[in-house]
Amino acid sequence: MTLVSSQELTVEQTTKLQELIDANRAEGEEHVDVAVRNEILLKFLIATEYDVAAAQEKLVKTLNWRHKFQVLSAAYYEKFDAGLEKMGVITDYKSNVDNFRVVTWNLYANLKNPKKLFAKYGVGVTKDGSAAPQAEDKALPGTMFLRWRVGLKERSLSLLDFTNKDNCKAAQVHDYYNVSMFRMDPGMKAATNEIIKVFGDNYPELLSKKYFINVPLLMGWMFTFFKATGLMGAATLKKFEMQNHGDLSSSFGKDNLPKEYNGGNANENVPDIFALAVADSQISVPEYGSILLKKLKGKTGAQENQGTTGTTRETEVAEEITAST
After folding, report:
1. What was the pLDDT predicted at 81?
2. Distance (Å, rounded) from C-alpha 142 to C-alpha 105?
């Protein structure tokens, strides 16, 4: 019995996956892609070392969090501050294998207005940079940065094929060029810790590799300390790679990267990483996501949940929702 195609399972693992599948069957299973569902449930099983009860508990917590946080809105509807959009980008190297195709880039050097970007979502910022309160019932959970980062994560996942062993996980790059640990904004530190927890709790087995590049020496020492003391799990540490430079050509191919990431070699086809950005119009909203988001906005009112610019993200589903309200 073959339940998944991304990897081979033992008889015992297959039995446990079937048990988890049976516990999560829905009547009619409308809009359910069975193959994708099985692959996602497997990720929860792997994350809990094939403990079915623990996997079920983790799954329920994730579904509750997704509902409360409104992740689909963050990904496909809300449009955020232009400063945030310069801090991250998604690339899709279609010819790459071994889960090095889809990559999210986190560019911390582009952080310009931390007080604004790390404020609670739905809260404006005055000219002097202080928070300007807004009606609480119109505010969505989390900071603007967290909602933007979760949205970036969700859109990158829509480019994966969970049934394909070469494209069922995404890579991440965290670029700390010109970022000092001593001058790092407290909001940025807090946001980083929050994102680590949110992603760890709710996105199991979706990371192929995480690169920390152009890392200050102090931060490199801290990573070595965590590794030595066992504060990070071996499986997680194995996916981390820390560099005090920015050359990623051996991982993603020099022809796929701009000068700052391919060892200093100019690439006229890729002047900067944003030249490779996957546009919103190139990202297809999953069928179930489109249906749920339309239902959500029908209940809450689309105008209340727009990004701080007052406009929506340029996705097909956002345009449909806006046109109907």
Report:
1. 82
2. 21
